[in-house]
Amino acid sequence: MQWTTETLAGDTEGVTYSLPVLRFAGTDGSAPTAYIQAALHAGELPGTVAIDALVPKLARAHAEGRIRGALTIVPGANPVGRLQYHFGELQGRFHLGTRTNFNRDFPLLAKPDPSLAGPEAGTADQRLKQRLLSLSVGHDIVLDLHCDDEGVAYLYVPAELWPAMQDCAAAMGVAAVVTWSGSSGASFDEASLHPWLRLPAEEAGLDRKVVTTVELRGLRDVTPAYAQSDAAGLYRLLVARGVIEDRNEAAPAPFAGLVAPIDHVDVVTSPRAGAILFDVEPGDRVAKGQRVATIVHNAGRADGSIEVLAPQSGYVLTRVSRRSLYAGDDLLKLVGDAPSANAREGALED
Ligand SMILES: [Zn+2]
């Protein structure tokens, strides 16, 4: 068990970011290896506290000689975003200097070779992406821990790895899986899988690969109970995939949650600016035409509010955490029973 602190130069003299990295060596060079990072969107902390609860379990496994495959863990993957504290709020999703999402525009490597991620160049956010990719590439299992605004726990899984990753979804105990393929704006998960897809199938060994963006519910779901249960889920996944040995952990049952391709997700938007009165919350099922929210745009007037209806029947995956929106802003994500009429290529959000 070894902590190191990586440093990343800032964009001005006198500014240096630090990035703590925890590594465990494995006892079996042929066992799968794992990389786990959290808070790439700097304010999304459910994964960071899950790692905090996971580390003692790993330390125990290490002391007992049960860590077979090497582990690399980055509890706070975005020191650049963490510094962007403005008017009392953290702006951890986009780099302020470039307005680029911290989870887009990762380098897409031709081969799973960490040396191809450098030499580091560009602005601090671009160099951070190169650094994170070079830390992660080559691991069989790559977990990127995020959260939504308000939501159930769910995974984004590359279609190439589904249904082989059913055991991971079951181990994590998530409510839903959204599968995707093609381009996702060079998000971290896309960049993690991309080099393996360039290899011949027999060399890539996709059956032992795990790549997923893990959405650990909502921004406010940072609690002792979730930290412990999410740590237990991560641990079960690592045992199920042979990174850790633990005979007390049963193999995951078949995944019983919702599974849908990304083009089934309707991102329902607000037709007017105003205050939101939600009728539904994450985890609810809705019928086509059912009211999901009312937007109050001119309070007190008879015609001062407008109803938002479900575009199709489905499952409420997430909703925004704010209660005040502009016209056209995202209101909620609905996993429809059929493809969305508004499905678009790439990621669901900017
Ligand atoms: Zn995120």
Notes on the structure:
- With 350 residues, the chain is α+β, with helices and mostly antiparallel strands.
- The chain has two domains: 2-256, 3-Layer(aba) Sandwich (Aminopeptidase); 262-336, Beta Barrel (OB fold (Dihydrolipoamide Acetyltransferase, E2P)), CATH 2.40.50.100.
- The chain is 21% helix and 30% strand.
- The chain contains seven helices and 22 strands.
- It has helices at residues 46-63, 79-82, 124-136, 166-172, 188-197, 201-204, 224-240; strands at residues 2-9, 16-24, 34-38, 71-74, 85-86, 89-90, 94-95, 100-101, 141-148, 150-151, 153-158, 176-180, 210-218, 258-261, 265-269, 274-278, 285-286, 291-296, 305-309, 314-319, 324-325, 330-336.
- The strands form five sheets. It has a nine-stranded mixed β-sheet, with helices on both faces. Strands 10, 15, 17, 20 and 22 form a five-stranded antiparallel β-sheet that branches.
- Helix 4 (166-172) links the parallel strand 11 (153-158) and strand 12 (176-180).
- The longest helix has 18 residues, at 46-63.
- The protein is globular, with a radius of gyration of 21 Å.
- The model has no long low-confidence stretch (mean pLDDT 97).
- Zinc ion (ZN) is lined by residues 41, 44, 103, 146.
CATH topology of the largest domain: Aminopeptidase
- Inertia-based shape: globular
What is the number of domains? 2
Low-confidence stretches: none
Number of strands: 22
CATH architecture assignment of the largest domain: 3-Layer(aba) Sandwich
Q: Spell out which ligands are present.
A: zinc ion
- CATH top level of the largest domain is Alpha Beta
What is the averaged pLDDT score?
Answer: 97
Largest sheet: 9 strands, mixed
Q: Write out the strand line-up for the largest beta sheet, numbering strands in chain order.
A: 1-2-4-3-9-13-11-12-14
